[in-house]
Known about the structure:
- Strand 1 (101-113) and strand 2 (121-127) form a beta hairpin.
- By secondary structure, the protein is α+β, with helices and mostly antiparallel strands.
- Strands 3-2-1-4-5 form a five-stranded antiparallel β-sheet, with no helix packed on it.
- It has helices at 2-30, 33-54, 64-99, 170-205; strands spanning 101-113, 121-127, 138-139, 148-153, 162-163.
- It has four helices and five strands, in the order H-H-H-E-E-E-E-E-H.
- Helix content is 56%, strand content 14%.
Amino acid sequence: MLGLAALFFVGSTVVFLGLEGGGGILLHVTQSVWLDLLVYPVLYVLAFLLLALMVPNMEEFEGWSKGWVVLAMILVPIAALVVTYQTYSGLDHRALHARGRQERATVTDVYWVDGGADPPAHVAELADPSGQPLPGTVSGDGLKAGQTVTVTVDPRGKIPVLLGTPSTGSGKFRTAGIAAGVEILFLAWAAYRGAADRLATKTTDNPKPRQRPDDVRT
């Protein structure tokens, strides 16, 4: 059972973290809003389904085991999204830190954006000294139209403008590592329970042949 659990654990860890890290890298490279809207819900549903596949008999759990099931189903998909987002954001910060150019910009508009199920977002649009709009938006908290601020701009124009000075992204990657650690903890539990369930099912489906009375030696 331990060998099967180890196989499940290694395989699921590679698949989960590979998908999450790959998603963050893909979003960083493409900088596509449409991919943003697609990747996160797909990743959430996929993480949920993969976890359910690992432990197929979750409805049979009782007591503290059921609590672990509920926590796993909630935390693993959320941790997957955090790993992807923090990887994506950390790579953006690292790129801006390495090649970004700081310049003064003017706040042209501040407004609220409907977040759907999430709270509305307060954002601001910016323009460079020549009046050309800068790509993307920044947090509008504390800003007002006509205000002058310092921003960091990607010379290639691929990464959205960042308000202030970018970090190296190490804090983002650290947060991604913590989320990955939480995810791995629950994957280890799911791998163990999944292996136990499968072996128990196999034993039930293939019972040992009963010995006939006349086969018993005296």
